[in-house]
Amino acid sequence: MERAAIYLRLSRDDKTTGESESISGQRMYLEEFCRKNGFDIVAEYIDDGFSGTSFQRPDFIRMLDDAKKGLFCTIITKDMSRLGRDYIATGEYIERYFPENGLRYIAANDGVDTAKDSGGNEMIAFRAVFNDMYAKDISKKVRAALDAKRNAGKFIGSLAPYGYKKSENDKGKLVPDEKTKDVVDRIFCEFVGGKSMLSIAKSLTSDGVLTPSAYKFGREKGSAVWNSVMIKRILSNPTYVGDLTQGFVKKISYKSKKRTKTDASSRFVAPFSHKGLVSREIFERAGILLLRYKSL
């Protein structure tokens, strides 16, 4: 019997498509396929919760390392979309990487088998593009749903802005964090009172006030020292007057995790969505001073 590895993948978006696409569903399908076609499953690799638009998945990488060691000579997935949804990278693996490394690839449900001259192989490029288009469409739908929540004044981030926390009754609503809200007030008052951003940063560090990252992630992971960038980020965020502002950064592509800053005109602002930590008068005065700093 030919030694084979089965690869199972499920992203968060796939979890809405039913049991057939679940990890257990893929496993059952592939075990039956291997039994009928004479394959001995010697290894199983699972990336649960990973998007198919990236191949930087822990078990996928582990599988390739094991293949180099000669643990198996065939890789089997339920269909090509389980291997990946980036049509360029998927094609690269199927058409070049696997053959060059002596690996046979089978997408059981798609009739793809690189060791045979099958009709399914002729459709590899088309299936790869279709799977990529599906990922792009899902990305658009997810983004539209999130944008609707932003426009409705719902906070969608995983971590609340410094000075706030998520309401226990409504995770989409911000409420003041009693442990840090006074720090925000202090920053605004000292700034409009004439202190520079650098001076404020130094005084907060000297007083042992945890930085936003240290407060959220712990002293070991967060920055230990306040700086002018942190201060400016707080002073320029309308969220602190009660106007929930989101979308400061965006992904450059549905295939990439890299993010880029957005300009003010493309951000989502929901006025009076929650309790502000500073008055509008103080916030506006701070804004005027920030413009003066910029012009210097």
Order of helices and strands: EHEHEHHEEHHEEHHHHEEEEH
Chain-averaged pLDDT: 88
Secondary structure tally: strands: 11
> For the report, how would you describe the main beta sheet?
5 strands, mixed
Strand content: 15-25%
Give the neighbour order of strands across the main sheet.
Answer: 2-1-3-4-5
Shape: elongated
Structural class based on helices, strands and sheet pairing? alpha/beta
State the end-to-end CA separation: 75 Å
* Percent range of helical residues: 40-55%
Descriptive notes:
The protein has about 300 residues and is α/β, with parallel strands linked by helices. It has helices at about 25-35, 60-70, 80-85, 85-100, 120, 125-150, 180-190, 195-205, 210-215, 230-235, 280-295; strands at about 1-10, 40-50, 75, 105, 110-115, 165, 175, 245, 250, 260, 270. The strands form 4 sheets. The chain has a 5-stranded mixed β-sheet with strand order 2-1-3-4-5, sandwiched between helices. Helix 7 (about 180-190) packs across helix 11.
Architecture blueprint of SSEs:
Elements: E1 2-10, H1 23-37, E2 39-48, H2 58-68, E3 74-77, H3 80-83, H4 87-100, E4 104-107, E5 112-113, H5 119-122, H6 124-151, E6 164-166, E7 174-176, H7 181-192, H8 197-206, H9 212-217, H10 228-235, E8 244-246, E9 249-251, E10 259-261, E11 268-270, H11 280-295
Parallel strand pairs: 1-2, 1-3, 3-4
Antiparallel strand pairs: 4-5, 6-7, 8-11, 9-10
Helix pairs in contact: 4-6, 7-11, 8-10
What can be said about this structure in brief?
The protein is of the alpha/beta class. 43% of the residues lie in helices and 16% in strands.
